[in-house]
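Progress against Task 2.4 (sequence-to-structure conversion) is shown through the following example record, which the project officer requested during the mid-term review.
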Amino acid sequence: MTMDQAQQEQFSGVGVDGVITPTGAADGVAPGSVIMDPDAYFKRMVQPDTAPGVWRWKDIEDVLEEMKKRPKRYPAYRRFAALVNQQWDGAPGASPLIFVGVQRIHKGETLPGHRHNSVAIYYWIEGEGTAYVDGKEIPFKAGDFFTCPAWHDHSFVNTGDGDMTMIAIHDLPILAQARALFWQEPVGSENTQHMVREQAGSWSAEEDGEVLAAAPAIVKESGA
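C-alpha cells generated for the chain above:
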C-alpha cells in the first residue's frame, strides 16, 4: 500500500520514530529539545526490564574492611558500601528508585549531623548506639528500625563495645534523576549542595572534591 500525496505531505518531516524536530533547533539554543507524537513518546517511555540485583554479604564485608584500612580517606560519614545494580542508565541505586547502603561506625565514633531531602529508613544489624534527629535522642540496638523524615538533622553515636553496622534505604536515586536532590553535610545553609555536577564536589562540603575524585575508588563485583 502506498501513501497518496496528501498523506506524504502530512508525514513529511516526521522521522521513522515519529520525532519532529522543532524549527530553530539548529541555532544551538536548545539542542536536546524535540517534539514527539504519542507513539514516539511511548517508545521512549517504556524501559527494558531488569534482572534482580544480588549482593553477597562477604563482598560487602570485604569493601567495608578495605575502607577500614584507609581511615583518613573513609571516616565514619564516608564509610558505607552502596549496593548498585548497573542494568540501567541514570542515577545509581539498588533499583531505579531506591538506594541501599551498608554503613559501619567503629567503637567510639560519631557520624556528624547532616540532612537531605531524601527520606531514610535505618535498620541496625550490629552493635548499639544513639541517634539524634532534630535534637530528639533515639537509643537503638541491633534489630531496631527507625525512619528519618526529609530535611531532618540527624547524627549517630556508637556507644557500644564494638562496631555498629546499619542498613540505610533512601529514595535518593529518584530525586537525583529529577535533579532535585539536596543535602547539607555538615548541617548549615553554607553547606547546601545540589545534585548537579557543577554544584556538588563531594558528600561533605568541607572536602576537596577534586582531590577525592582523583583518589582510587573501591568497586567490587558481587552476586556470583
